[in-house]
Amino acid sequence: MRPTYLGATLAVVGLTLAAATACSSSPSSSSASHPTSTTATVGSDCSSVPKSGTGSLSGMPTKPVVTAASNNPQLTDITHAVDLADVQAKIDAAKPITVFAPNNDAFTSLEKELGSANVQKLESNTTNIRDVVEYHIVSGTVTPSDLASGKALTSWLGQPLHPSKVGSTYKINDADVVCGNLKTANATVYVINSVLEP
After folding, report:
1. To which H or E segment does residue 49 belong?
2. Residue 190 DSSP one-character state
3. What pTM value is reported for the model?
């Protein structure tokens, strides 16, 4: 997906937030509030995580989440969205947090669904981009057990997120976790296959 389309794609999704509340950084509903030392990953596609460097399983814990994610070739669209929304400093300074990070395929699918005309028309809507980014973040450390419990989480946007486990697949709303429980210096990351919409 071309980066010039990413902001508009997110802006279109952001238009669905008519009733959205102001950004909230209150703790999530997760019972876990402190980072854990476990590095066990979940998901069916952790092979996409780089084997070495800042974006690898061993490198990610040394860097804040946006920097770590920017070094994973599957997460370049979401890190570009964070840049467009001008919230990198806020995200990297918060801890602990959990980030549900759509992979690049998720953004490509969304662009196909919305059409390039809508993408181009709404490319510069920074407020809506920020809303969408913050809908993918919760305060506190969310563990795989928290996801499986089905207990709702509260995003930074103030809107609920609904985790579940179906068979061996962890989910958030309708998105599948393709690789999760990845640790960074300040966050736990779950890579997901869809862009979340409130």
Report:
1. none
2. E
3. 0.81
Q: Positive or negative, the Cα torsion across 25, 74, 112, 165?
A: negative
* Beta pairing class for 97-102 and 187-192: parallel
Superfamily (CATH) of domain 3-192: FAS1 domain (2.30.180.10)
Tokens of 188: 């736990």
Q: For every one of its 198 residues, what pLDDT tens digit does the chain have, with 9 covering 90 and above?
A: 444 444 444 443 443 333 333 333 333 434 333 333 346 899 999 988 889 888 899 999 999 999 999 999 999 999 988 998 999 999 999 999 999 999 999 988 888 888 777 765 555 788 888 999 999 999 999 999 999 999 999 999 999 999 999 999 999 999 999 999 999 999 999 999 999 986
Q: At 84, give phi and psi (nearest 5°).
A: -60, -35
The tokens for 7 are: 């902001």
Residue type, 101: A
